[in-house]
């Protein structure tokens, strides 16, 4: 898919979905905010882009809930950056969110692709 077409097809994320994607991204390794946004974008083939105005409030919210923790470190470009890491509570929450996401996906797929019941043309 052409890059310009991908940008036109970007999808806005619901808050709960963004939280789940941040937790999933941090499951792989601690990461700074910019890296989290890049991982979500790259992992979605450029369809999902998290704007700074959504990402950082979500990170603060997740940290306040105890699902992630942060610490200042030196980044790969030798700059100070806040790195976020998944906590044990965050891992449990990710499991819960993933289960809910699977249920929601199944429900939406059922509505979007209804099976014809017997007797229907």
Describe this structure in words.
With 121 residues, the protein is an alpha+beta fold. It has a single domain, classed as Winged helix-like DNA-binding domain superfamily/Winged helix DNA-binding domain (Arc Repressor Mutant, subunit A, Orthogonal Bundle). 57% of the residues lie in helices and 13% in strands. The protein contains 5 helices and 3 strands, in the order H-H-E-H-H-E-E-H. It has helices at residues 3-8, 15-28, 33-43, 52-64, 88-112; strands at residues 31-32, 68-74, 80-86. It has a 3-stranded antiparallel beta sheet. A hairpin with a 5-residue loop joins strand 2 (68-74) and strand 3. Helix 2 crosses helix 4 and helix 2 crosses helix 5 (88-112). It is elongated, with a radius of gyration of 18 Å. The termini are far apart. 17% of the residues are buried. The model has no long low-confidence stretch (mean pLDDT 87).
């Amino acid at each position: 898919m052409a890059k310009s077409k991908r940008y036109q097809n970007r999808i806005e994320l619901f808050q709960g979905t963004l939280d789940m994607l941040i937790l999933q991204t941090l499951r792989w390794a601690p990461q700074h905010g910019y890296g989290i946004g890049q991982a979500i974008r790259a992992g979605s083939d450029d369809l999902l882009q998290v704007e700074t105005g959504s990402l950082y409030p979500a990170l603060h919210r997740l940290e306040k809930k105890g699902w992630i923790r942060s610490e200042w470190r030196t980044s790969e470009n030798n700059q100070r950056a806040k790195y976020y890491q998944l906590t044990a509570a965050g891992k449990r929450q990710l499991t819960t969110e993933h289960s809910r996401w699977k249920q929601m996906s199944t429900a939406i797929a059922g509505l979007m692709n209804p099976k014809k019941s017997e007797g229907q043309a």
